[in-house]
Amino acid sequence: MTAIEQTxxxxxxxxxxxxxxxxxxxxxxxxxxFVAQGYHAAAMDDIAERAGVSKPVLYQHFPGKLDxxxxxxxxxCESLLQAVRxxxxxxxxxxxxxxxxxxxxxxYVEDEGGAFRLVFESDLTNEPAVRERVDKVTNxxxxxxxxVIAEDTGLxxxxxxxxASGLGGLAxxxxxxxxxSDRSVPREQAVQLLASLAWRGIAGFPLHGxxxx
Length: 213
What we know:
By secondary structure, the protein is an all-alpha fold.
């Protein structure tokens, strides 16, 4: 019996929990199943079993599989956005801001729960509600980066948004590539390499009314 099976066997079924705690439990179980199996292969039976509850209990909280998936997606899109905003607000040194932002994406994809797969590698991207959420968080992360670029360079909002989209896309794609390469380069070194590349590009735009940081 695997460690997961042992945990499931030891978990009491039907234990009464406060609604919020039960919801979080169900979301945690659903994340494990969706990450492991993908949306289409996952079944509500699997999620209920993983959570140690009956299907009626699961349906009391989430009317269907898509509702459950979207709730998870909302949760993890918000986590990414807050991580990027936190990185940008962590310092006023722009070189360090670039590095912190790159690291935020690496940390996000490296999280052991694999939540990034629901956002960036979903097998449900043809579903409009999913596509809308992924596009929204991608845009909001770019807007957060754009705010800093526009303020510091004096470039127009449109120009700043293009650069911000480029930086965000670079961070996301490279972080995922790094993870799928089995972390062949240590994370600290990978982040530094990417941050150096990004900084050499963005630093070419002079600061607005002040000296380079």
